[in-house]
Amino acid sequence: MLRPVTLRHRVAIALALVVTAAPAAAHADPNTPDAPAGGGPPPPNSVNGESLTEKTSTSGPAERFGHKGQLTIASDAALVTENTITSGVSGSTTVIELEPTVDYFVARSISVGGFVETNYTSDNAGHAYTLGVGARVGYNFTLADLVSFWPRVGLSIDDTSTTGNVPTTTVTSSGAVTTTTASTTVQNTALAVNLFAPLMFHPVAHFFCGFGPFLDADLTGNARATTWGGKITLGGWFF
Hints:
The chain is mainly beta. Helices cover 10% and strands 54% of the residues.
């Protein structure tokens, strides 16, 4: 014969349930994220707050680059010294180039900046020295946690001084031939358009390096020149 459940029995059952559930709740890890709704896969792991997936995260170095108020200092052409000797031809050519730059992000991904160009070239025919200053604007596209694309376009004023050795041949009254070398200097000032589109790599926050094509084309001047190729940028950002 079943006995009726009294109020005393009900209180005992409730206390037993509370005692049984308490240890499980005490051992639960508060730092373990809740399982996603619908039984989907758990969120991706991370290292130092950086996503290990191909998608960008708010804490990835590339995602943190290009915010309003950031200042970057870099060199768009590392210091390079080249010395080339051609077989069968005496002499060599030496090129030294340096281009420090400063860019400031006035809004998210939009930068304005300036740069100084220096280039020295020397060979058997003489040497040339170029000094220029310019301004530019750019836009940074975030592609992944560690990668972005930062094309920039600007204008510069370049002053080039070229000194050449001009040989002069003379014939004396006795028929002897003599050759002398005279040095001449030509000055050229030109307004140029500058394009640079590097693919940027951000291994850690506040540091970047990149490589991409560039184009420098004179718009004015007596001896207009167009130069293109690829160059490296290396630097960091603040704030």
